[in-house]
Amino acid sequence: MPFLWISGESIFVRFAVRLCDHGFEGLGFSSGDYLIFAHSGWPTKEGAVCFLRIGQEAIVRRIEDVFAMEPLLSVTGDRAPSIRLHRNEFIVQGQLVGVIRANDVQWVVSQEASLPLSTFPTV
Q1: How many domains does the chain have?
Q2: What CATH number is attached to the domain comprising 53?
Q3: What's the average model confidence in pLDDT over 3-14?
């Protein structure tokens, strides 16, 4: 079974999400890239790319107007409409800390305890 290894040491829990659309091409990310997120609270930086939960839906969006009660959730370009939601209507589960390009992924088979790639969310 294939695994995606995220090397390095960090005090933060990290997880990968495979990007399956073109909503962040304006930031240099392509479909098939793995976005690496660190679990975190509310971002303090404008335009932070975050992994969000809205009810049962998981999405990746830039958060603008981070100090507003209804921040703007967007992608680059016009791939998806920007929306404003009250802070209580969604949960920030992680902030972008890195990217693994699709063509840089090396698949390995391991018996060690790790999450199978199939358990990573796809957005």
Answers
A1: 1
A2: 2.10.109.10
A3: 60
Distance CA 46, CA 24 (A): 16
Structural domain including 15 reads: 2-119
Give the contacts of 117 (CB within 8 A, at least 6 positions apart). 1, 2, 3, 4
Are 35 and 21 in contact by the 8 Å Cβ rule? The answer is no
Q: What tokens appear for 107 in the block?
A: 């698949």
User: Would the pLDDT of 48 be above 70?
Assistant: yes
Contact 84, 73 (CB under 8 A): yes
Distances (CA, A) of 70 to 17, 24, 64, 75, 101: 25, 22, 10, 16, 32
Residue 92, classed as helix, strand or coil, is strand
